[in-house]
Write a structure and sequence with these properties.
The structure holds two protein chains of two kinds. Helix content of chain A is 34%, strand content 26%. Chain A contains 16 helices and 27 strands. Chain B folds into two domains: 213 residues, Aminohydrolase, N-terminal nucleophile (Ntn) domain (Glutamine Phosphoribosylpyrophosphate, subunit 1, domain 1); 201 residues, 3-Layer(aba) Sandwich (Rossmann fold). The two termini of chain B are 24 Å apart. The relative contact order of chain B is 0.10. The chains are: A alpha+beta, B alpha+beta.
Chain lengths: 500, 427
């Protein structure tokens, strides 16, 4: 069986490893934007091949597909979906695993995603407001207090500003930052012509994040185990947002801080969103879908955003634990035969993924790019871990160079978090910078200390949402403005109170 | 003693002038003066430092990276130093007076321009630690005009350091967790003894520099210095104080009608005591004017003024009653003498039993943390009998070193009690 993977990073490398284990002995072909040494090797070793192509260009990808003539095409990242690559391939009659342009709107447009949840009254939705012009956005910000400001278009998992505004004595300083940030986003969104709303302002929530990924053929939904990503760049959840510095999973389907009831509610939300989405865009959703969730005091399971693909690095956690034929699942989804499919995983282990990135990531891509790196794969295998290549390019001189994002991931499993953690810390030492440019990773991911903190925080928010549920207040935070009445929308801050 | 505070906003959009001010206010119970250094946007690449009293109307001009300290001590040249060279400016703050601070600041500025300052600073400190007065090296906070900060907790770990975060935007390091709370942040980690945190725009990482000494937390941090809403090395200050109060009650064989805590920092102890013996806890005194901490003032008249202003009695709660009066510690006894005079002559209590939630103080601090003189310590100079007569109290009780030690151990803490005459508690 010939499988063509579209995409260049760590997620695609994880998919290649999962697909490769299939008893159908697939030949793996890859269309990638740069020469990812991991993907190239998976392709070569399975008797397939690789192509360098602009993966967001439907024509370029169709050309590769026509040359390969694969039995199944798996689209890894979201940007090719946004650009209509899945649709172009399906039009040519290929069997494709990956959301169509219409369905991928759920990730591309955060306004669309939020509006959909409100229209269909799906649980876990947050209050929000969206803006097309900078002045009305700034005006709104003046009145909204405790908020998150996001670019309305998915822009590589970055650009979210979380402004906790629960201290009136600092509210003016925060307003200034919010206002300047809104201007900055409008400036940056200028070059995206594929979206009308530019800025989204939404209710700020706090809690424990987790990712709920599923595979779907539009009718059947097959949930994957929950995974927790770590978006902060630096240890102990400090510093700017990244695409994810690592993730943990297990044992089994749930991390220790999520209950099975919360898991079921999460899957229910995902199901309802997929139903609503397909109705709304009048298209079938075939591919991977994920809810970036947070357990909050407002709702319990709450939606932060959606991915129209597998999470990166979350999918990497599945590499050591999937026991089923993963290729078969993708193939059945692509050909709308997912009903009755089952995913078997090794429930006896936990997995830890850690990404290593060059200093400069995520804010300064130039600083983080072009640094040679060496990976001692033998050393990593000796401690029972695997290596995945992400934002790293093999150049003609035979050396791997960073491309500005997370360069390499290591994937480790263990009977418990202590064992997996110990292995991950040993494995990551086998990745070295060759030019002295420092690399960084998070030692705290998978540690007992951080895990205990997550459990503590989850218990705290659980008490809050269960109390809200008892009063029928899930999703609501009432605001009373004397003479004007009770409002359920909490996007009204100190300044509005002052105007009364 | 001083307290350290740094706020690092990764995004240049932030102006931290107000933020640092409120952070300092949250620490002003530890001292009323401050030095604040930041890289002001209009002075590109230059460090600007301000000094003065901490007030709510304090006008500062700092950018997105700022470091500061709160002082209760007059030995400022041993607590704060700056140095510049080759276009780099550096300011260094210390947790307690240290004679070599200025020297270290100028050596640190040399390494600051070489890159990887966290690595070279670690080497530098390692050299200082090999010196024979290694235990005098305090916790340090440095900031450079390159917008780098590094906070390092001394290997003895006498006073705490806490790392906090605010969303994706800020890292905060403070001597006390309350500053992180007040800035709307989340406490992320209690920095360990010998551990340092380096913060720059593109890298945050920790360093470990120690010399194998067993870390030991200053008992006064828990007894008196920290706010009751603070968490020190994972331990709730409030619960710790309550438990010392309970221990005092367990040791007490007599009977009282009412329990009071004086001054207000002693209230958690009194609550613990009252709950344990099942008697009422009452408010004894109401303060006039702003909060002043008499113990950290060094001028004797100012100290008395501060004490007198705290002490207007709530007579109805106390008159004719047998009173248990709880305090955290006794230094000169001046507060207690004043209180007993008021309770005896102005209120007319029937009996006055005084309980001190720590052992008798007998020595000055060898680490120069607290500026206390042995000659003025009541318990170092008077016998208990004489003290009872001088203070005009019916009985006077202290916790033993073993009592404090047992409670510290229950909280997993090893505390320093050298001013109580014990080499170390909690060994």
């Amino acid at each position: 069986m010939k499988v063509l993977i579209i995409g260049s990073g760590g997620r695609e490398h994880a998919l290649a490893k999962l697909i490769r284990r299939s008893p159908r002995s697939p030949k793996i072909f890859v269309a990638m934007d740069y020469l990812n040494p991991g993907l190239a090797r998976e392709a070569e070793e399975t008797g397939g091949g690789w192509y360098i192509a602009k993966t967001t260009d439907p024509q370029a990808v169709v050309k590769v597909a026509e040359a390969v003539s694969p039995d199944l095409i798996v689209i890894g990242p979201e940007e090719p979906q946004f650009h209509g690559v899945s649709d172009a391939l399906r039009e040519k009659g290929f069997s494709v695993f990956g959301a169509s342009q219409g369905c991928a709107e759920i990730e591309k447009s955060k306004v669309f995603a939020r509006s959909l949840m409100w229209k269909y009254e799906i649980d876990g939705r947050l209050y929000f407001a969206a803006f097309k012009d900078v002045e009305s956005a700034k005006k709104f910000i003046e009145y909204a207090g405790d908020v998150v400001i996001k670019p309305a278009r998915q822009a590589g998992g970055k650009g979210v500003k979380v402004i906790r505004d629960t201290e009136a004595y600092l509210t003016n300083d925060r307003l200034e930052v919010k206002s300047n940030y809104v201007e900055k986003i409008f400036e940056e969104m200028k070059h995206y012509s594929d979206i009308d709303y530019k800025v989204l302002v939404e209710q700020r929530v706090e809690g424990v994040e987790y990712t709920a990924m599923v595979i779907t053929d539009g009718d059947t939904i097959l949930p994957l185990p929950l995974v927790q990503d770590h978006p902060h760049a630096f240890e102990f959840d400090i510093g700017p947002e990244t695409g994810g510095m690592g993730s943990i999973q297990g044992p089994g389907w749930l991390p220790p801080f999520i209950t099975s009831d919360e898991f079921n509610k999460t899957i229910k939300i995902v199901e309802r969103v997929l139903e609503a989405l397909q109705l709304e865009v009048r298209d079938r959703y075939i591919g991977a879908f994920a809810g970036q969730m947070m357990l909050t005091g407002v709702w319990g399971s709450t939606v932060i955003e959606f991915y129209s693909r597998f999470g990166d690095p979350e999918i990497s956690n599945l590499v050591p634990i999937v026991e089923s034929d993963f290729l078969e699942l993708l193939d059945r989804a692509a050909s709308r035969r997912l009903a009755g499919a089952k995913l078997e995983i090794d429930e006896s282990v936990v997995t830890i993924v850690k990404a290593i990135a060059p200093v400069g990531y995520p804010e300064n891509k130039d600083l983080a790019s072009g640094h040679p790196i060496a990976v001692n794969e033998v050393g990593i295998r000796e401690v029972d871990c695997e290596v995945l290549y992400a934002s790293i390019e093999l150049r003609a001189d035979g050396v791997m160079y960073t491309r500005g994002s997370r360069a390499v991931e290591i994937v480790c499993k263990g009977r418990d978090y202590e064992e997996a953690y110990r292995r991950s810390e040993l494995a990551i030492q086998h990745i070295k910078s060759l030019d002295g440019h420092p690399l960084f990773y998070r030692r705290d991911i998978g540690s007992q200390e951080l895990l205990a903190e997550r459990i503590r925080l989850a218990n705290k928010v659980r008490n809050v949402y269960l109390a809200k549920a008892r009063k029928g207040l899930l999703g609501k935070s009432l605001v009373w403005l004397p003479d004007r009445g009770i409002f359920e929308n909490p996007l009204i801050g100190f300044r509005e109170m002052r105007n009364v | 003693m001083s307290s350290l505070l740094t706020v690092y906003a990764f995004d240049e959009l932030w102006n931290l002038s107000n933020t640092i001010k409120y952070g300092l206010l949250a620490l002003s119970h530890r001292g009323s003066n401050t030095v604040v250094c930041g890289v002001e946007p209009s002075t590109k690449g230059r460090l600007r430092c301000y000094g003065g009293e901490i007030r709510e109307d304090l006008q500062l001009q700092v950018g997105n990276v700022v470091a500061a300290a709160v002082y209760s001590d007059s030995r400022l040249d041993e607590l704060y130093s700056s140095c510049s060279g080759d276009g780099v400016e550096l300011a260094l703050f210390s947790e307690r007076p240290w004679k070599r601070l200025g020297e270290l600041a100028c050596e640190a500025v040399k390494i600051a321009r070489e890159g990887d300052i966290w690595k070279s600073f670690a080497n530098l400190i390692t050299m200082y630690l090999q010196h024979n007065e290694a235990e005098l090296i305090p916790s340090l906070l440095l900031i450079t005009s390159n917008k780098e900060v590094l906070a390092w907790r001394s290997p003895l770990g006498l006073t705490p350091l806490v790392l906090g975060g605010y969303g994706f935007d800020m890292a905060i390091i403070s001597s006390e967790s309350v500053a992180i709370d007040i800035l709307g942040g989340e406490v992320k980690r209690f920095i360990r003894a010998g551990e340092g945190i380096y913060i720059s725009k593109y890298l945050v990482r920790n360093i470990i520099v120690d010399h194998g000494a067993k870390p030991t937390l200053c008992l006064f941090e828990l007894l008196y210095l920290a706010r009751p809403d603070a968490v020190v090395d994972g331990v709730s200050v409030y619960l710790f104080r309550k438990m010392l109060g309970e221990k005092l009650a367990e040791n007490f064989k007599g009977d009282v009608d009412v329990v009071v805590g004086v001054p207000e920092t002693a209230i958690p102890y009194a609550i613990g005591f009252a709950q344990r013996i099942g008697k009422a806890f009452d408010i004894a005194f109401v303060a006039t004017g702003g909060k002043r901490r008499s113990m950290i003032l060094s001028d004797p008249l100012e100290k008395l003024i501060a004490i007198h202003l705290k002490m207007n009695p709530v007579r109805s709660a106390l008159e004719g009653k047998r009173v248990a009066l709880i305090d955290d510690s006794m230094v000169t006894g001046a507060t207690l003498k004043t209180v007993s005079q008021i309770l005896r002559y102005r209120v007319g209590v029937k009996e006055l039993h005084v309980f001190i939630a720590s052992p008798p103080l007998v020595a000055s601090c060898p680490y120069r943390l607290l500026n206390l003189d042995t000659r003025t310590m009541l318990t170092a100079n008077l016998s208990t009998d004489t003290a009872i007569k001088y203070l005009e109290v019916d009985t006077l009780h202290f916790l033993s070193k073993e009592d404090v030690d047992a409670i510290a151990k229950r909280f997993g803490l090893r505390v320093c009690g050298r001013c109580f005459g014990s080499n170390f508690l909690g060994g």
